[in-house]
Design a protein that fits this description.
The structure is a homodimer.
Chain A lengths: L1 E4 L4 H12 L5 E4 L12 H6 L7 E4 L2 E4 L1 H11 L10 H15 L8 H11 L3 H25 L14 H15 L8 H10 L3 H4 L11
Parallel strand pairs in A: 1-2
Antiparallel strand pairs in A: 1-3, 3-4
């Protein structure tokens, strides 16, 4: 397999954890999201993924895009260990947490959105940081409320093994720390992220362990 | 079943189409996203869904949140007619299109984001409309490129029956029309949306057919 990735990209980070958990080796192909106006907008890359987004996973002759679709594909094609619970309600809960992060927080704080705020509206560094912190804190507070109140929460977001929810939570928390997000009212999230980072599969997927880390 | 919904909410619209396609009757419970500072932020509603977002689907004793998680739940629990292809690659492609809309376009143009732009950054009506049109047009152009180049595209986004991709595309196009989005370079999207709107399940899910339509 080949993974088009950028060390700090949350969406790439999710897929790297999944590949590690499932013991699938892959070739790392770095795509720099900032250099040269964004290598994801090169004609060569757009031919591969017209969305101009990473990650892209190549599995044989299959070209796979959008991190959550890739996670579902990996779980269907390489089922061990499973990243989703066996029951429909559990699966719905895990996907809801994953989506609460990957739809409601992550895209609003994406590089291209922050760039638009700067270029078109003239929002300065401090304003953009406040923006990113706002969506992180309100979004993660909602996730904390879900995790803290439901009995299905275990050592991880759902039960005692990692699921797609944890694969979205950890990269988001890495990101949110760079905006000085206040985690003092999120003890469940902090506990789960600490537990995840005890696992080699998460540590090897982290920013600093990537070949293109700066 | 009960569906907490708002007539113009894209995420609710997706679930309404799915319920109609699968022939599942439901009680419509309107949640007004604008009135009273947003009824989704009432203590009663937050107790149901701490994310403060619609839709919420109640199926017996199950409380389901996040529209894409609800669509997957409905497809697993009430499998006919299927909303995802049978093969892993097809499923990945359909989910990628659905996510390209529901992660990359929809959240950035959400009411709460537009409100933040107005209140915290003082962006006027014209600026917010340009913002929404920008993310709609660039996001849908990427979807058009995917749909136009792949042989799996049929009468609908994937093959000749509606999938989760169509359930995300149609509500987004409804939304994008309100920003005067330019669809002239998106003939595949326009063709597919027109085909969807020939179906009773889509028409009965549309804005104007809802009990809370204004």
């Amino acid at each position: 397999m080949k993974l088009y990735s950028y060390f700090r990209s949350s969406a790439s980070f999710r897929v790297r954890i999944a590949l590690n958990l499932k013991g699938l080796p892959y070739e790392y192909l770095p795509v720099h999201l900032v250099k040269h106006g964004g290598e994801q907008f090169s004609l060569e890359f757009l031919a591969l993924n017209p969305q101009g987004l990473i990650p892209v996973l190549i599995d044989g002759d299959k070209v796979l895009t959008q991190s959550l679709a890739i996670l579902e594909y990996l779980d269907e094609t390489y089922p061990e260990p499973p990243l989703l619970p066996a029951d429909a309600l559990g699966r719905a809960r895990v996907r809801s947490i994953a989506l609460a992060i990957s739809c409601e927080i992550h895209p609003i704080n994406n590089i291209r959105v922050l760039r638009y705020l700067k270029r078109s509206f003239g929002i300065d560094d401090e304003g953009r940081k406040t923006w990113a912190r706002h969506w992180s804190e309100t979004g993660l507070a909602a996730v904390e409320a879900q995790l803290a109140t439901l009995p299905a929460t275990g050592a991880f977001c759902h039960g005692d093994t990692p699921t797609i929810a944890d694969l979205c939570l950890v990269p988001q928390v890495f990101n949110s720390r760079t905006y000085d997000c206040d985690f003092s009212a999120m003890p469940t999230i902090v506990r789960i992220v600490d537990r995840c980072m005890e696992l080699d599969a998460f540590r090897r997927a982290a920013w600093e362990a990537q070949p293109d880390a700066e």
